[in-house]
Amino acid sequence: MSNEVPHAVVTGSSSGIGQAIAQALLDTGWAVTGLDLAPATLQAPGFVHCGVDLADAPALAGATAKLGRVDALVHAAGVLRLGALGALDHAAAAWMWRIHVDAAARIADALAPAMAQRGTGRIVFIGSRVAQGMAGRAQYAATKAALIAMARSWAAELAPSGVTVNVVSPAATQTGMASDPSRAATAPKLPPIGRLILPQEVASLVLYLLGPQAAAITGQDIQICGGSSLSR
Predict the structure, then answer these.
(1) Of 135, 127, 139, 227, which Cα lies nearest the Cα of 185?
(2) Separation of alpha carbons 206 and 202, rounded Å
(3) Burial of residue 44, with CB atoms counted within 10 A of its CB: 0-12 exposed, 13-18 middle, 19 or more buried
(4) Which of 24, 34, 28 is nearest to 5 (CA)?
(5) How far apart are CA 63 and CA 33, in angstroms?
(6) 163 forms bridges with which residues in the sheet?
(7) For 34-58, what is each residue's pLDDT tens digit?
(8) Whether this model's pTM surpasses 0.85
(9) Where are the beta strands (DSSP E) in the chain?
(10) Average pLDDT of the chain?
(11) Does residue 183 surpass a pLDDT of 80?
């Protein structure tokens, strides 16, 4: 990183994991631009809110063109729609793809080349343990699995330039998504630790991955599972 104040772009910064990540970065001296359709919930020196629909490709292109120098990209925006085979909502699946995968690809495509040219940069995607597959969540799982494949591919491309690309995949996390009334019949399963993962716990790992101490970590899908993966 340069001697300038480092600048991170965080999608989904108005709530949940994205908000926790943006706050953690601000607390440690980063400048943060939040990309989110929802109104800003953070008010702090160094924070700029950019209202944009991540599913709107032209609007997203316009927003990324105005970001200036970016040292780190964290794609934390996410939506969840459920559907069993035989009753899949294909419009919802397309929407999840645009938010989770297409937006990540478009923003990274706009920002990563300049990072590579400078010889430093960090990209982190927020994935999900559901990427391994879960009944009733096939379409959501497919988008999160695609994020892992993209991250590994880009990590291989960018490793020689000093830019790292990683995925952080939490188990069920204490966010508005987990408490959505529409999910009452399919409540998230508690990890073995007996509670949901906290957004701040995810933010702490992301903060580590964005620092110079994580320069040798790239192409990884790191799980914060509360013991959920131990039975595999």
Answers:
(1) 135
(2) 6
(3) exposed
(4) 28
(5) 11
(6) 121
(7) 999 999 999 999 999 999 999 999 9
(8) yes
(9) 7-11, 31-36, 47-51, 72-75, 121-126, 163-170, 221-224
(10) 93
(11) no
Two structure tokens written together for 102 = 């297409």
Q: Is the dihedral of CA 25, 61, 98, 181 positive or negative?
A: positive
DSSP state letter for 191: P
The first and second tokens of residue 51, run together, are 């209202």
Quick: pLDDT tens for 126-179.
999 998 889 999 999 999 999 999 999 999 999 999 999 999 999 888 887 555
Radius of gyration of the chain (CA): 17
Active site residues: 140
Torsion of CA 35, 57, 151, 28, to 10 degrees: -10
**Are the C-beta atoms of residues 171 and 222 closer than 8 Å to each other?**
no
List CB contacts of 219: < 8 A, sequence separation 6 or more: 151, 152, 155, 156, 159, 165, 166
Four-residue CA torsion sign, 180, 33, 145, 206: negative
Q: Tokens at residue 19, please?
A: 């908000």
Q: Which two tokens stand for residue 171?
A: 């188990």
How does DSSP classify residue 198?
P
34's tokens: 């939040």
Full strand arrangement of the beta sheet holding 72-75: 47-51, 31-36, 7-11, 72-75, 121-126, 163-170, 221-224
Give the bridge partners for 167, in sequence order: 125, 221
